[in-house]
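debug: dumping io for the single-chain case to check the tokenizer round-trip. Nothing else runs in this session.
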Amino acid sequence: MQPMLQAKGLEKVYKRGSLLSRTTSFRLSADFTVDGPGIVGMMGPNGSGKTTLFELITGSNTPSAGKVLVAGRDIHKVRTDERDRLAIHYHQSYQVRHFRSLTPNLLLQPAGSDFPLVHLFDEPQFNTQDGYIGFMLDFFHRLRDEDRLVFLCVHPNERLHLEILQEACDRFIFVQQGNVTPLPDYQTLLNHDPVRTYLGNLLGGRVA
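debug: decoded output
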């Protein structure tokens, strides 16, 4: 059986300057495999390349090198309508409009064979006032239980966000200055020195 997602020698390079004196302004490098369904938590500083990685996974951004395989299929070599059945990127504004009204119905409906295999949530807004967190976590878990792969990108600025990642996610990815580091579990995430530096005071009252 093919892994659900592979980033193989994946690179995206952005350059600046004139044609005669162009220099690299940013480089993203990723090489990882996710074998099966699950929920992957992703974090990293602003500007580190998280959204670029999501765009590469969905095929909306063309890599400078390497490839992305979803269930063995090269996301950049399939038709646009086929891409939509392989991976979907939920931007923050879309999530606010779409899931606040549809989440209760989505929770009651099976995914269906044409539902995307990979779902990428880009910094969802977790509102504690109206049960939205519970709806979203239930939706993430339902996707995983129906053999989908979920990426949950969070920029933690309070302990609640770490607790959500700990509860929801099976594995993690840390992105910093274009370097993509897979981490197998929550404890390994917290013990990773660059993550500890990034989280700073949030680890003062450590989440066990």
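debug: round-trip ok. The helical segments are 50-58, 80-86, 92-108, 132-145, 159-168, 186-191, 193-199.
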